[in-house]
Design goal:
- By secondary structure, the chain is an alpha+beta fold.
- Helix 2 packs antiparallel against helix 6 and helix 5 packs across helix 6.
- The radius of gyration is 34 Å and the shape is rod-shaped.
- The protein starts with a helix and ends with a helix.
Length: 174
Amino acid sequence: MSTSESQSTRRILGLDIGVASVGWCVLEATDDQPTRILGTGSRIFSPGVDGDFKNGRDEPKNQKRREARQMRRQLWRRRRRLLKLFRVLCRLDLLPDPGAYDPSNLDEALRGLDAKLSAADPMRHDRIAAQVFHYRLRARAAQGKVDRHELGRALYHLAQHHGSGDPQGIAQCN
C-alpha cells in the first residue's frame, strides 16, 4: 500500500456570512491539514436597511410598509372590538338597535342617542360641559343609578377610548 492511498483527501468549504456580504473559500485538505486553496470569493450586496449603516442610524427598508400594515390591523381590530360590543349592548337592550350593523347606521344610532341623552342634560348649554358630556355620563354611571341607555352609552364610550388617557381639565368640569 502506497503512502498516497493511506492519506485521505477532502475538500473544506468555509463561509463568512456578514450583514452585507458573504465570503467563501474552498480548501483541499489531506489528513485534516489544509494543503492548498482551490478557490476564494466574496459577494457584497446592499443591506436591507436605509440610512447610516456604519454609525448604527439605519432603518429597515420595509419599515414604512410594516408600520402601515400594523396601523391597518390595529384599526381593523378596534372597529371589530367596538362592533362586537355594540351588538352585545344592543342584545342586552342597553343601546338602541340600529337594524343593520354597518358603520353609517351605527354612527346614526349613536348620534341620535347622544342627542336624546344630552337634551336631558342640565349642563347642555355650557360649551365646555357639552364637550365632556360622555365623561360626566360615565362618572354618573359609576356613582349611582342611571337609565339603561345611559349605562350602555357610558360603557361604549369607555371602549371607544380604550387605552387613552383622560382629557385635560376633566377634573375641573366635575
